[in-house]
Amino acid sequence: YFLLIFSDLIISLAMKYLFPLMLLFIVSCETIPRTVHEEEVSKLNRKIDELEMKANELDKLREENALLREKLKIQGVQNNIYNTLSAELKKILDSLVEDGVQMLPGDRWRFEVDLLFKPGSDDISSKGVEVLKKFANAWKGQNVGFKIEGHTDKDPIVRTATVYRTKTNLELGAARGIAVMDVLVKNGIPEKSITVVSKGNNSPAAPNDDKAENKKKNRRVEISILQ
User: Fold this and answer.
1) Is the pTM of this model over 0.90?
2) Distance of CA 81 to CAs 86, 175, 192, 195, 226, Å?
3) Confidence band (pLDDT; 50, 70, 90) for 100?
4) Distance between CA atoms of 88 and 90, rounded to whole angstroms?
């Protein structure tokens, strides 16, 4: 009888305390691997994110490198005709920079209109003639071609004498380009080697707005040397 009561007590205690502990142990055993697995997955996801960021950075670096190579390629050939000239001729052309002429990549020379022409006109000033003589003397006898581009600002023509000859900025750009060509031809540059193009106000070098400094930059004649 006492043994039966003792067995019942043991079973009762086991049900009350041992079984919950065993159940807790089983659940813990399942939870620990699941937690470890989740941490591993989380680590892998972080690594994937890091690799994707590095891949994006690598793509960006490749693009920048390609642009840099292209830029270096352009710089490598810029002004290659100028580089073939003698030191004496280079000195003449370099002196034009002191006169206010800009030497641009690709054997291109920019003359602001205010340097060459009378205000609002297609008549070359005496200063402009002297500058163009220097330019012609440097290139005279060289086996090259010349492309002259006339550019204007966006303002309509108002000077009476100019309006009589040119009605639009496109015509004014052409008239100025032809005037430059005439001076070059008179100073030894073959006419057949020259092409004149007018861009009017369609290819501004600066914003085509009402600021005086931008208008000054846009009024220009550019001469490209061609092989």
Assistant:
1) no
2) 11, 27, 19, 18, 8
3) confident
4) 5
